[in-house]
Design goal:
Layout lengths: L1 H19 L5 H8 L3 H19 L12 E10 L2 E8 L11 E9 L7 E5 L9 H17 L10 H4 L2
Antiparallel strand pairs: 1-2, 2-3, 3-4
Length: about 160
């Protein structure tokens, strides 16, 4: 029983590692092997459609997260979607309903849309100019609606330059 469990975990680990390198699972290869030529042509046509979908950025609705508070800015660049969002911490703490805003990058990985955090400004990785401009516009609009920042508070519009 233990050996079967370990073998299953090893198989799952190898399959997940192979996904990063673009390797096909043995079960998929076996299923393709069982197809006739018209089915294989249909599979190739569907694969081309899916490749086109991977070249487009995910939709804003695809980038949902269970801890997501609100999306402040959402910009599509290439096959990625950058979202400047606040999130709840997932704890029941009244003093911090939302954290952020933080910048997240969403890309398509099959049917999944994993989020990669770039943190607060200044960001951990280079950010496209289109995204910086949208975030700066958001901060300018936010500053126009609110009072000037308090003493000692960071002004993120200058950090984005």
């Amino acid at each position: 029983m233990e050996q079967a469990k370990r073998d299953n975990e090893e198989h799952t680990r190898k399959r997940r590692e192979g996904r990063l390198h673009g390797e096909l699972s043995e079960s998929l290869i076996q299923r393709l092997r069982n197809c006739n030529p018209p089915q294989l042509q249909n599979a190739m046509r569907r694969c081309r459609e899916l490749l086109k979908a991977h070249r487009r950025p995910p939709l804003k609705s695809d980038c949902r997260n269970r801890f997501q508070g609100s999306v402040r800015v959402s910009v599509a660049v290439g096959n990625k979607r950058y979202q400047y969002e606040t999130r709840s911490c997932g704890k029941d703490c009244g003093k911090c309903p939302n954290h952020g805003p933080y910048l997240y990058v969403y890309t398509r990985d099959g049917a999944l849309f994993p989020a990669k955090s770039l943190g607060r400004a200044p960001f951990k990785a280079p950010v496209p100019r289109k995204v910086k401009t949208a975030i700066q516009a958001f901060h300018k609009q936010e500053l126009n609606l609110q009072a000037p920042p308090a003493k000692g508070q960071r002004d993120t519009t200058t950090l984005l330059r």
